[in-house]
Amino acid sequence: MGCLDEGRFNVEVENVVSIGCACKKSCVEEEANTASIEDAVKVLLLGLGEDVNREGLRKTPLRVAKALREGTRGYRQKVKDIVQGALFPEAGLDNRVGLAGGAGGLVIVRDLDLFSYCESCLLPFQVKCHVGYVPSGQRVVGLSKLSRVTDVFAKRLQEPQRLADEVCSALHQGIKPAGVAIILQCSHIHFRDIESVFLDSNHQGWTKILVSSGSGVFENKSADIWADFFSLLKFRGIDKEKIHFRGSSDQCWCSSQSSLSAKASSKIEVVNPAMVTAVASILKSLGEDPLRKELAGTPSRFVKWLMNFQNSNLDMRLNGFLCNGMNSSNTNGKVNLNDKKLCSELNLPFWSQCEHHLLPFHGVVHIGYLISEGFNPIGKSLLQSVVHFYGFKLQVQERLTRQIAETITPLLGGDVIVVVEASHTCMISRGIEKFGSNTATIATLGRFSTDTSARTMFLQSIPSDTSSAGGQ
User: Fold this and answer.
1) Which GO terms describe its biological process (predicted)?
2) Which residue, among 136, 88, 132, 91, has the nearest Cα to 112 in the 3D structure?
């Protein structure tokens, strides 16, 4: 008995040593890949004209590396490890005509919120996923596994149709059902440059697409089972006529590849080769092949997007706007506060890039100010230009709010309140994954900083449903 125990002990020790060596090797590779991404991010920051040692950017390379590794962890996961052991026996109907339980009863998991990186431009996109399957062989899968399998493929560089197809195929192979159905509602940040946003006040910030994929009994898009699937979705935002099924004609999903975007991007100076090489290095460190056909132009496209936020001298542009605004405004005179009235501009859209993670954040700006009776309010276009000017930089929301308030105060007589509402993709691209979260910041100057009733009057005028949520 002692010999048996000793032999079992030796086997266990060997297994532990083997696992330990594998873990050690994996940790070494992970550290090397993280360090490589950090070095590449420093190249990108330098290419933007930034000081990598300034406060706020000092830890950015590490934060970006961690966010990217987390956002692409699907490359290091296997579906088999998730589904294996999660299949359970479940009987169907007994001696009755019909379908139910583990033999033909439709099962749906709705509204799975996912996050992925677009393989064409490396910008994030959001996904609301609906998964359905028809059990067979009296076999069902734990419902949480449907979510985990979809997340594996979402956490890779993706495009919507391939994401739907890969999830569908993986579930069909892993569960062996009668069929699998996938519907994805995808929202992508619209790839534009600073010039076009300044000139186009009606700029639409998101590109949206509906895609689907089906296997087995769902392979025929006209099958009756699809009607059951849509009925159980009960999701009013889905228009069946606009859904792209597998094999349908391709749609230009990423606007970075559209002719309009290419024309706008051509205004940007020749892309920095060192920055392009740095992005290619990041792709390789994430486990991708930078030479893959779909990724061939990705480094250049991402650099073109990033160059919108370079630390360049745009002060001449802003000064021109401000001079014109001050010449046409009569709000600088000293007047009795009791004679002033509240004016406001609400829902001024903005886009920016978080300097902590190099990920976009977007939202709306609300501006309130007091002017004397008989004086004209400031033009909306001027205020929007100020918002865009400070948005198109590496930013943090608190600084953005303060800068807007301090810049417009001389134009508006000193009594100013600014509220910024924003959604940050860094809140969903990392481990916390807080979908739907929103951040509000406020700056008050002059009377608004001391007069509670004036603040309350303005804050109550802000609509409860703003456009800052954007994607879904």
Assistant:
1) folic acid biosynthetic process; tetrahydrobiopterin biosynthetic process; tetrahydrofolate biosynthetic process
2) 132
**Separation CA 263–CA 254 (nearest Å):** 15
In this structure, what DSSP letter does residue 433 have? -
54 has which bridge partners?
none
**pLDDT the model gives residue 12:** 45
Which helix (H) or strand (E) segment is 130 a member of?
strand 124-134
Inter-CA distances, 7 with 15, 17, 471, Å: 12, 15, 59
Average pLDDT, the chain: 82
By CB neighbour count within 10 A (0-12 exposed, 13-18 middle, 19+ buried), where does 115 fall? Answer: buried
User: Which structural domains are found in the chain, ordered by start?
Assistant: 72-267 (3.30.1130.10), 315-469 (3.30.1130.10)
Give the tens place of pLDDT for each residue, 29-79.
Answer: 888 999 999 999 999 999 999 999 999 999 999 999 999 999 999 999 999
Tokens of 193: 């440059």
- Residue the block writes with tokens 């950017």: 57
Q: Which amino acid, 252?
A: C
Q: What is the pLDDT of residue 192?
A: 62
Which pTM value belongs to this model? 0.82
Largest distance between two CA atoms of the chain: 101
The two beta strands, 340-354 and 360-372, are: antiparallel
* CA 8 and chain centroid, separation: 50
Cα separation, 394 vs 57, whole angstroms: 10
Q: From CA 36, how far away is CA 43, in angstroms rounded?
A: 11
Residues of the chain with pLDDT under 50: 1-4, 8-9, 11-13, 16-17, 19, 249, 259-261, 264-266, 268, 316, 326-337, 467-472
* Residue 208: per-residue pLDDT: 87
The contacts of residue 159 (CB under 8 Å, 6+ apart) are 118, 119, 120, 253, 254, 294
| Residues 137/87, Cβ–Cβ less than 8 Å | no
- Strand 394-395 to 340-354 pairing: parallel
Separation between Cα atoms, residue 160 and residue 119, nearest integer Å: 10
Q: State in Å, rounded, how far the first CA of the chain is from the last one.
A: 64
Q: What φ, ψ does residue 210 adopt, rounded to 5°?
A: -110, 125
CB 120 within 8 A of CB 294: yes
Measured between alpha carbons, how far is 186 from 24 in angstroms, rounded to an integer?
38
Q: Which two tokens stand for residue 349?
A: 């859209």
